[in-house]
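tool=predict chain=A
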Amino acid sequence: MKLRPDEINQISAVLHARTESFADLVRIAGLDPGSDLVGANMSGVNFRTDDLSGFNFSDADVRAADFSAARGTEYAIFKNMTFDDRTKLPPNFGGSPKTSGLNLTVETLRIRGPARISAVLSGLFGLNSTTSTTRQPLAAQTDRDAVEAIVRAAGTSFYRGMRVLPPDRRHAMYAIYAFCRIVDDIVDEDGAFADKLPRLAAWRERVAGLYRGQSDGPVTRVLLAAVHRFGLRQEDFLAVIDGMQMDAEVVIVAPDLATLDLYCDRVAAAVGRLSVRAFGDSSAAADQVAHSLGRALQLTNILRDLLEDAERGRLYLPREWLDAAGVPHDPQAAVTSRRLGEVCARVATLAREYFAEADAKMTECDRRAMKPARLTSATYAAILSRLEERGWSRLDHRAVLPSWQKLWLALRYGYESLLSNG
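tool=predict ok
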C-alpha cells in the first residue's frame, strides 16, 4: 500500500500524539504489512518487539528511535534515513539476513544533531552502543523554569492557556513564545535599527545552531529539545525574525495587499506552523490551519489596534482598499476618516473567510492536537464580532469579551483555565 505524503504526515502525527508503539500505529491507521511509509517521522519511537516485515521507511526520520528489540523475517527498508547517536540500533543492523531479528537495507545515512561517528559505526557493525534514550528528554528543570518565568512575567493569557497541555508540549510552546518575545523586544527597543541588526543576526545564528545540536541558554536549550521532539522547522523560526525585522526596517503605512499578506504570514502564520507541531500535528492540513488562522488572528489584531498603531505612525490597512474608499494614507487622518468603516468592513470580511478556512481544515487534523487552535479561533472570532458591533467610529472604545463569554468558550472547548483578553 503506497501512501500519499499527506497521509504519511497524518500517520506520523497519530504516532506522536497517541502512541509510541509502531504496532499500535499499524492497528490505529489500518496499515498493511509492506506499506510504503516513505518520509515518515519516527523520531523518538520505541519499536519494542514490533514486526517491521516488509515496511519501507525510506527517508524516514528515526532520531532517538529504539529498534533494539524490533523483529522482522523480511527486510525492512531504511534508505536515506536520518538518525543521531540517540537512535538505538540492533546488533545485526546492516548485517546478513537472518530468520529472526531485524534486517535492514541501508543505502545512505544522513546524520543530524550531535551524532558521534563512533555511535553510528557501533550500530552498523554490531558493536555495543552506549545510547539508551528512546525519546528526546525534556530540557533541564532549571531551564524550563527560566523560560516559564519569561512567559509568566509577560502577563498575558498565553501562560494560563498553555498550562492545559502536557509538560513537553507546554514547555515547547513557552519556549516558542519566549523566542518571539525576545526578538520582538529587540525590534521595539528605542534606538537606530542598524544597531539592532547584529542582535537579530545573532538570533538567526542561534536558530541555525539548534539544527546543529547547539544551544547557549535556557530558551535555546528548551527550544533544542522541542525541535528534536516535535520536528519544529528552521524556516518557520527564521520567518518570525523576518516578520519582526519587516516591522522595524521601515514604518509600515498602507502596505499593498501582497505585502500585508507576507507580513501576516511571517508574524502570525509562521508562529502557527511552529505551534501546530508542538500541539501534536505536523500534517499538511495542520499547516493549512496555521496559514489561515494566523492571517485571521493578525487581521483581527490590526482592526483592534487601529488607534494605537496610528499613534505610533503606523497603518496596516491595505493600500488598494484605502484608495478605493478615498481614505488617506496618513495614519492619523485615516482613523478619523468618515469612510474608514468601508475599509475595516472589507478587512473583517477577509478575516472571517480565513477563520472559516481554518475551522474547515481543523476537521482534517488530529482533534486533540487542534484543541488550542479551536479555542483561539473561537476567542478571536468573538473579538472580531465585538469590533463589528462597536463599529469603526469609536476606536477609543476597546472591544473586550465579557467574563461570561470567556467562561462559555473555555467550557465549550474543554479548557480548565480561563483566558483573559490580555
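The radius of gyration is 24 Å. The chain has two domains: 5-124, 141-412.
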